[in-house]
Give the backbone structure.
Amino acid sequence: MAQKTLKSLSRRGRFWHKHVQQWQRSAMTQIQYCQEHDLSVAAFRWWRRRLPPDPPALEGPKPLPAASVPTFTEIRLPTGDGAAAPYAYEIILPDRTHLRLRPNFDPAAVAALVSVLRVPC
C-alpha cells in the first residue's frame, strides 16, 4: 500500500495531522494531549501510525519539557565576610513560581503555601 502525502489526505486526515504536529511540539504525553483537546487516544494513535512522516525540521532542537515536579536548589550561605544571605533555600515550582526561604522557615507553612499555589485560580 502506497503511503499518502500530506496533499492527498482527506479532511479528517489533515485534522489528525495537525493534532499530531501540535502534540509533537508540546511537552505533553499523548494521553495528556488527547484529554486536553477532547480527542480519542485510540484514534490519535491509529492516525499517528498511518500519517506520512513530517520532513525533518530545519529549526533548532525541540524545547525541553517543563518539570513535572518542583525543583529544589540549596543555596549555600556565604561565610567569608560575615554578611548573612537573605535566603537559605529556593524552591522553583513547575509553573516557574519561585519560593525563597530564610534559614528558620516553618515547614508546615511552606507546605500549606505550596498546596495553595497548586490550586488553579
